[in-house]
Amino acid sequence: MLILLPPSEGKAIPKRGKPLDLARLSSPSLTDARSEVLAALVELCSGDADGAAATLGIPATRLDLLELNAELTSSPTARADAIYTGVLYDALELTTLSSAAKRRATSRLAVISSLFGMVRPGDRIPSYRLSGDVKLPGLGMISGFWRESLGPALVDAVGTGLLVDLRSGMYAAFWRPPAELARRVATVRVLHEVDGRRSVVSHFNKATKGRIVRALLEDGRAPLTPEKLAAILGELGWTVEVGEPGPKGTQLDVVVTEV
Question: Which of 11, 67, 197, 200 has CA atoms 20 to 30 A from the CA of 48?
Answer without folding.
Answer: 11
